[in-house]
Amino acid sequence: MTEAKPALRAAVRANRSPDALAAEDGARLRHFLAWLPQRPGVLATYASLPGEPGTSSLIDALGALGWEVRVPVIRREVDWARFRGWDAMRAGWQGIPTPAGPLLGAGSLVEADVVIASCLLVDRAGYRLGVGGGWYDRALRHRRDDATVLAWSRDVEVVDTVPREPHDLPVDGYVTESGVHLL
Fold it and tell me: What is the 3-state secondary structure (H, E, C) of 161-173?
């Protein structure tokens, strides 16, 4: 199954349109904010790159609602940092926006009430096809049992099944432009 992952990743990236992504971002955010618990807490999410379902508006909206936002620090070891504003971000590995502030450690994910995971595809059982490297699978081992983990996705990227490996961990649902879909 591992051999199929690179080809799938390339196909998904080739079929993503910046215009379609931008049009879907607003609807995905509206559905998510309507679902989100009213009391602010801690939410961990990735900072998107161009060509991915966008999280910039999500991060801004969460901050305005009083949520503490944590963003991955992408490197070999899993780590997180508090989002302290766009001016406190720098380009990290592969150009991924990364907080320049103090690191919180992998175990800090236990404080998150909600985790938003990136993906290229997600299947109806909650398994994601990520960008490669298994970072989120390693990170999710540190989550709290009652935290909700959602893939930030697109309707056209929800499929019946994705290739799985023993280390792959499922999410609890996914958010697309048509709504929040809990499994």
Answer: CCCCCCCCCCCCE
- For the stretch 66-125, pLDDT in tens is 999 999 998 878 999 999 999 999 998 888 899 988 999 999 999 999 999 999 999 999
Per-position DSSP letters for 80-123, written without gaps between them: EEE---GGGEEE-GGG-EEE-S----GGGGGG-SEEEE--SEEE
Compute the distance between CA of residue 150 and CA of residue 152 in angstroms, rounded to an integer.
6
State the chain's mean pLDDT as an integer: 93
What burial letters (b/e) apply to 26-44, b meaning 16+ CB within 10 Å?
A: eebbebbeeebeeeeebbb
Specify burial of residue 95 (Cβ count, 10 A radius: 0-12, 13-18, 19+).
exposed
Whether the Cβ atoms of residue 62 and residue 69 lie closer than 8 Å to each other: yes
